[in-house]
From TrEMBL, chain A:
Highest taxon of the lineage: Bacteria
A matching Pfam family: Gluconate_2-dh3
Transmembrane segments: 24-43
Keywords: Membrane, Transmembrane, Transmembrane helix
InterPro entries in the cross-refs: Gluconate_2DH_su3, TAT_signal, TAT_signal_bac_arc
Protein name: Gluconate 2-dehydrogenase subunit 3 family protein
From TrEMBL, chain B:
Keywords, alphabetical: FAD, Flavoprotein, Oxidoreductase
Domain Glucose-methanol-choline oxidoreductase C-terminal: start-end pairs: 435-554
Oxidoreductase in keyword set: yes
Native source species: Virgibacillus siamensis
Protein name: GMC family oxidoreductase
Length: 247, 572
């Protein structure tokens, strides 16, 4: 392989994805899976070119599903689930509420890949979710109920409560101390908690885990192509990579 | 109007490990094979954006769309079965390669004890050791008879490993060296040696080194990138049907692979022979008949059973009398008897790993220890695996501590790289009242009845889980853990939390047509030109991941189909 300086920049600019794709087409047939992995140029990804010099707004941070008021409630509630502290940012700063908004706007919010055929019967908890409502409907109802419950208990809306009062509302949902007719309060809480973790730690492409700071906080290196060099060694801190780094 | 196609030698329903192996073996020997796969085409290039926990592991990108087909579940016959509306306990594969794409690659051989479980248990402990409703039976084949087929599967897949000191005899070494050892694996090895156990490196289908198999397929070494389970391999390093057996079949020019083809019925005639299959092209909605001399069902456990029952083939199992065979001996896996240990002065690269990276002992598996003083039979392996802990799913915290808020945050951030787990792959015994049948109420996307599962954990499982949890905690203690949490009680079987995609039984093999559905070539006793391949043939589930044994049985079935193609008749 020629290694003159002139070609160096161009060579390192070939993204791993393109490299694999091109080689895959070229080889085809029987070698399908394999041998390519061994010749991948590790560590040659250079994403500097992909960064624009101009600072641009994050147009991703707008709402697809929630109303502004619903969004504020979700933002405040998820911050209580994962608060900002001396360890690092909380759900608010990491963009978790935007993540949840975007998820509910899509196929996940519509339970597109779940079995939603009737008849619906109440089951045992070992049988899993048996409701007819979709996740986006559960959220709409639950957020309204959280507001009602906050007003009933503390005479204020959820976002106006103190942190302790917000925790009390969330605990009462978690423990089914709130009696709701259409949805399960604890079921909603579990859903909210799962979505919070997803928003903290999914690839930043989904709108949460802003700047990969969720990963940094726990020394998770994100999307690395290979750990062959460190697998036998002691603990290693690494700067995380995202899927964007592999485009 | 059903379109009828020209007859072929063999038609296969489902192209995962079973279908891929059958297709490659038969086409190499000159047979014309049609492979019908209800999902989409898959290839290595699909996985260049695969390091995406949300999309693949949490939203189940590679799994079957449950809106079209699922199962129903009840813990016992007095309950109303309700649909599994969302994923939890286990995951159906979908698309070319099936569940063979999203597996971890842990490739074991069941023990000699497994294949003769009933006779060996009675020989050593007497008949009373087996509860009256536990329906274990011998498999109609011995380990020694199956050994060449294990070997064949391991060479095809390039399994990386070292000899199991307590396993069945091997005719050859593993084709590739064991995987690398991480510091935590060495800690497990040392601790189990101190306890006089017999550790070995988990046999792995994630290649430890570049390998070319006997079919000429070359694959590269695993990169320990930590995205195996629930993911496809972007390197082709993990053996899956798409990078091993399917290209071999395709190269012969004898394999006609049709994706988006949903098989709904096995067609059969008055003489008791299969004529072919009826399937729907799901891109057009067209119904198509594919006639064949031999029909092979190579779908997942539930769908193999579903196709037989919906096609009215074989005698359905009746739990009241324990007679009939189709749907009998559904079994699962007992994995919750585990423990976690916290190491306050050590940190580990828990984010790195491979699906089949880890250390294991078989000292408490099968009948490798004396069961006279325990209240269960069989056992399971105990292992420390390093599959790669991803951040959404892995947030270890001390038992009983808050699951949200400031304390949760602090705990989960501190524990993540300082916690190691040891767990069991507990064997699962069949019972008279555990079975699969057709649900009377719920239907799939074509209006065909869903499979109904009736299953719960039994006393055997609870005792076994308590036993393995204790042993796991002992090992962690020997490893130097500062704080250990282990399972207290197994509880009822719950379909909502992930345990393993190791569902077995329903079309079990055996030596007697009265008590088994297929013979030891996986040929239906009731229909000689129909073969049913997969973990559906397991008469119980052993204390290992099942794929190695599924692979061996598929090679055995391929040999049987060739014999049948030449001479006809029952093979056993």
């Amino acid at each position: 392989m020629a290694d003159d300086g002139k070609n160096q920049e161009e060579k390192t600019d070939i993204s791993r994805r393109k490299f694999l794709r091109n080689s895959g087409y070229a080889v085809g047939g029987l070698a399908v899976g394999g041998v390519l992995g061994g010749v991948i140029p590790w560590g040659t990804d250079d994403d500097k070119k992909n960064r624009t010099a101009k600072q641009s707004q994050n147009y991703n941070q707008a709402l697809m599903f929630f109303t502004q008021a619903e969004f504020n409630t979700v933002d405040a509630a998820t911050e209580r689930i994962f608060p900002n502290d001396e360890n690092g940012p909380g759900a608010h700063e990491l963009g978790v509420a935007f993540f949840i908004d975007h998820q509910l706007a899509g196929s996940y919010g519509f339970n597109a890949r779940d079995y939603m055929q009737p008849p619906f019967f109440h089951g045992e908890k070992e049988q899993g979710y048996q409701g007819r409502l979709k996740r986006r409907e559960i959220f709409k109802i639950a957020l309204r109920e959280m507001q009602n419950y906050s007003h009933q208990t503390f005479k204020k809306g959820f976002t106006e409560l103190t942190e302790e009062q917000q925790d009390k509302v969330l605990q009462d949902f978690q423990k089914d101390n709130v009696k709701l007719t259409t949805i399960s309060a604890s079921g909603f809480f579990d859903l909210l908690r799962s979505l919070t973790l997803e928003g903290l730690y999914s690839d930043p492409l989904y709108g949460g885990n802003r700047d990969m700071d969720g990963w940094r906080m726990r020394n998770y290196p994100g999307s690395q192509m290979s750990y062959t060099k460190i697998i036998e060694g002691e603990f290693k801190e690494m700067e995380p990579k995202s899927l964007r780094d592999h485009m | 109007m059903v379109k009828k196609l020209p007859k072929v030698d063999v038609v296969i329903a489902g192209v995962g490990w079973g279908g891929g192996i059958i297709a490659s073996e038969l086409t190499k020997q000159g047979l014309d094979v049609v492979g019908l796969e209800k999902g989409q085409e898959r290839k290595t290039e699909d996985y260049y954006m695969v390091h995406d926990e949300l999309r693949y592991a949490i939203r189940y990108e590679l799994m079957q769309d449950l809106s079209k087909d699922t199962i129903t579940f009840r813990g016992n016959e007095r309950m109303r079965a309700l649909p599994m509306r969302q994923y939890g306990s286990f995951l159906f594969g979908d698309g070319l390669g099936g569940a063979g794409v999203h597996w971890n690659g842990q490739t074991f051989r069941f023990l000699p004890y497994d294949f003769e479980i009933r006779s060996r248990t009675i020989d050593r402990y007497g008949k009373d050791k087996i509860p009256s409703d536990m329906t274990i039976q011998d498999w109609g084949i011995t380990y020694d008879e199956l050994e060449p087929y294990f070997n064949k599967f391991e060479k095809m897949a390039g399994i990386s490993g070292e000899e199991n000191p307590l396993g069945g005899k091997r005719s050859e070494k593993y084709p590739t060296k064991p995987m690398k050892h991480s510091p935590q694996m060495d800690m497990f090895k040392k601790a189990t040696e101190n306890l006089n156990y017999h550790p070995y490196t988990i046999p792995s289908a994630n290649l430890s080194e570049a390998y070319t198999n006997p079919d000429g397929i070359s694959r590269a070494a695993c990169q320990y990138c930590a995205f195996c389970e629930r993911f496809g391999c972007e390197y082709g390093a993990k053996a899956d049907p798409v990078v091993t057996v399917i290209p071999v079949a395709e190269k012969t020019g004898k394999f006609d692979l049709r994706t988006h083809s949903w098989v709904r019925r096995v067609l059969h005639n008055k003489d008791g022979k299969a004529n072919g299959v009826l399937y729907t092209d799901i891109t057009t909605g067209e119904e198509i008949e594919q006639p064949a001399d031999v029909v092979v069902l190579t779908s997942y456990v539930f769908n193999n059973v579903k196709l037989l029952l919906n096609s009215k083939i074989g005698k359905p199992y009746d739990s009241a009398t324990g007679t009939g065979v189709i749907g009998k001996n559904y079994a699962y896996q007992v994995v919750k008897g585990a423990a976690s240990g916290y190491f306050k002065d050590e940190k580990f690269n828990n984010f790195a790993g491979a699906g089949a990276l880890g250390m294991v002992i078989d000292d408490f598996n099968g009948d490798n220890f004396d069961h006279s003083d325990v209240d269960f039979i069989h056992g399971g392996y105990l292992s420390l695996t390093q599959t790669g802990q991803r951040p959404i799913a892995s947030n270890p915290i001390p038992k009983g501590s808050p699951v949200w808020g400031k304390e949760f945050k602090n705990n989960s951030l501190n524990y993540i790289n300082q916690t190691l787990s040891v767990g069991a792959m507990g064997a699962s015994m069949p019972y008279q009242h555990h079975y699969l049948d057709l649900d009377p109420v719920y239907k799939d996307t074509f209006g065909d009845p869903l499979i109904r599962m009736t299953y719960d954990f039994e006393k055997q499982d609870r005792k076994l889980a308590n036993f393995t949890a204790k042993k796991s905690a002992d090992i962690l203690k020997e490893m130097g853990a500062d704080k250990i949490d282990s399972m207290d009680e197994l509880g009822p079987y719950n379909i909502t939390n992930y345990q393993s995609t190791h569902n077995t039984g329903g079309v079990i093999m055996g030596a007697d047509p009265e008590t088994s559905a297929v013979n030891n070539y996986l040929q239906m006793w009731d229909m000689e030109n129909l073969f049913v391949v997969g973990a559906s043939a397991f008469a119980h589930n052993g204390g290992y991941n099942p794929t190695g044994t599924v692979g061996a049985l598929a090679y055995r079935a391929a040999e049987g189909i060739m014999k049948y193609h030449k001479n006809g008749g029952m093979l056993a």
